[in-house]
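Many introductory courses stop at the sequence. We go one step further.
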Amino acid sequence: MAGRMQEKIVIVTGGSSGLGRAIAELMTAEGARVVIADINQEQGETVAKEIGVEFVRTDVSNPTEVDALVSGTVARHGRLDVMCNNAGFIGMSPLVETTDESYSRMVDVNFGGIFYGTRAAGRVMVGQGSGVIVNTASNGGSSPSEGMAIYSGTKAAVIAMSKAAAIELAPLGVRVNTISPGTMLSDMVPDVPGIVEMLDKLQPIGYAANPSQMATGVLYLASDEANYVTGHDLVVDGAATAGRRAVGS
């Protein structure tokens, strides 16, 4: 079914690469008018030209910049239909070796950025009486991994915050959901020999996903097909967190 987002105004943060780019491409293909936001100006401008969308340089850890992103989009287009708070990054280190700087940056971007985006979009959407917010979490938020305590903690916080926001905003016409991707072959995967083969073996489905497979989940949550879906965490991870595999499998 084409045109599921026809003429809808959509913001995607972290839109210059990985899942953010895949979301922007899919939303555009479905008829949306997309604004991508990213801290990387050069890459963001290049991607925007390639897929035919707008670009606004934004540091999502700065609430003033996030507010300006949302208010500027509304000023240009008259409304905001979908806010995809997707910007984030992976940090890996043993808990006791995690630096204050690494902790603060991960919390500021992975949780703070999604909170600021949810708040800014929520204010606009409540005024409109309609809108959808989709926040990118991770399957690590519900099934943490060794060496990723802070990352997993921020993603768990995103899931909980989004559920609470969904309860508050549901009577006001605004839906809030999260998507929890599993392993993706994106820019976040280190360029190490054999890493893709290893990641493939770890997935019960047999391979690590590409970002476009995750973007379809975001499209569903943002579309009118999900009009009664709110407060939901959609896990898209090829059964990676469904349970334990048999020993020796």
